[in-house]
Amino acid sequence: MNTWWQRAVVYQVYPRSFYDSNGDGIGDLNGVRAKLDYIRRLGVDVIWLNPIYKSPNDDNGYDISDYRAIMDEFGTMEDFDRLLAEAHEKGLRIVMDLVVNHTSDEHPWFIESRKSAESPYRDYYIWREGKDGNPPNNWGASFRGSAWERCEETGMYYLHTFSKKQPDLNWENETVRGEVYDLMRFWLDKGIDGFRMDVINYISKTPEMPDGPMMNRLYGNFRPYCLNGPRVHEFLQEMNREVLSHYDVMTVGETPGVSVEQAQRYTGPDEYELNMVFQFAHVNLDYDENGKWTLKRVPLDGLRRVLSEWQTGLHGKGWNSLYLNNHDQPRMVSHFGDDSTEALRSASAKMLGVLMHMMQGTPYVYQGEELGMTNVAFPDISDYRDIDTLNAWNEMTGELGVSPEHMLACIHRRSRDNARTPMQWSAAPNAGFTTGTPWIGVNPNYETINAEAQENDPDSVLCFYRRLIALRRKLPIITEGDYALLLANHPQIFAYQRRWQGQRLYVICSFSAQTFDAPEILPYCGGRLLLCNYVPDGDAQTLRPYEARVYLVEA
Ligand code: NOJ
Hints:
Layout: H1 4-7, E1 10-13, H2 29-34, H3 36-42, E2 46-49, E3 53-54, E4 66-70, H4 77-89, E5 93-98, H5 108-113, E6 127-128, E7 148-150, E8 157-159, H6 174-190, E9 194-197, H7 223-226, H8 232-242, E10 250-254, H9 260-267, E11 276-278, H10 300-314, E12 321-322, H11 332-335, H12 342-357, E13 362-366, H13 387-397, H14 404-414, H15 451-455, H16 461-474, H17 476-480, E14 482-486, E15 493-500, E16 503-510, E17 516-517, E18 528-532, E19 542-543, E20 548-553
Parallel strand pairs: 1-2, 1-13, 2-5, 5-9, 9-10, 10-11, 12-13
Antiparallel strand pairs: 3-4, 6-8, 7-8, 14-15, 15-16, 16-20, 17-19, 18-20
Helix pairs in contact: 9-10, 12-16, 13-14
């Protein structure tokens, strides 16, 4: 029998954009508390909260200046304690974001560290001498510019794989690791139920730090020297031994660039590291030489190949997390589905839900996904808030010479702000998110796409998600069964089977906006039709636009 986190469904809350309880235009902890019943009605078990710690918000809380205090805009520690207690009373667990690859440059450790080479905190971060008046090597940061910043105080450079306000911690330093374990215990002793660990496979760097292969005309790639580095497994095993093994909690590591083999090590039952990881291969399928800033579409064959590889690769050897979007990704229905008409939006959002939720792993639902919320196309760059988007805009339309029109089109497709527009609660002003001025614009489609409208509409994406999640709870085959891809080369269908104790589950998903005949699915249309995003019409071989069906064949 699987553990609770293998049976669980997680709902991700980005508090800044979820619900504002005090009218300052920014979502907050009391806002999350006010919506606990909504979350519970979905049938999920766990809430993952994006960072809520004290932060100057260079990167919306991923730059932490005090790990033991709450961000001013989000409320107080008393608010947090109340949220945790009420969530637990309602049977919901809470998983926190753990951001320990880097801190804010306003964290007291860094303020001390930068003062002098003799500071007892110097070695908390990664300092190097420059080379001939230039940074120590050619690495570019994830949020553009050099990955090194020079400090006037000593003339030396510190490493920041993200923004220059996010200096990387030095995990080689045992005292740093001890500090991290202490702050983890602080939250675990409050009774939280686990951690989502931010870029946790970045914590061990190759000490030599040579130049990286050029990524564009400007900078080299740090990733070969910083991801899945030489001591990462040792550090995670130590963290597990020192901290995690003493609590009944779940852990999910965010691990960009991870392979199936590496994930087996991070999540294997005998490794004592993490419970599961977020891999990126399927959400990066449309990358090109400009990274995510392209207008390419996700190819179905790639999606099918990657997801199937992860299903079979981790079966019995680790554990998958299942997601198509989060606070860093475009909206699922716009990225992988079809938001061109109301009918196609609704059908494809449900189909994508079926595709992911019937696989093996722990599904993550990102706030608004359950409504089929879509990308936004703000008219002007000044409407955007995300540091990644704004810095990429500056570098690409500046030094790299990309036209502003093209870049804005790419931003409409890929910006992280697509996921960060306020949650659409109702057709009231500002989608019912705030009575004040929202920190980022609301998607204008809130008048039709909102929770209130979907609440009592049995055909809504919301009601469909409730049924989808309930099914996982009822049928062990979904959490335990093995996986095999069906119709592997079909141009429009993603189909697979699950098998467990003589039962079979057949999942058939159309990726076409047209109705078409697919007699090749007939062998899999037996048994009981458990779920379909259309009213069944008895014509098994005809698939309607983005139709999804789940059949169960009993033993
Ligand atoms: C990954 C987080 O999900 C993202 O939002 C953040 O900007 C980076 N890590 C840096 O912490």
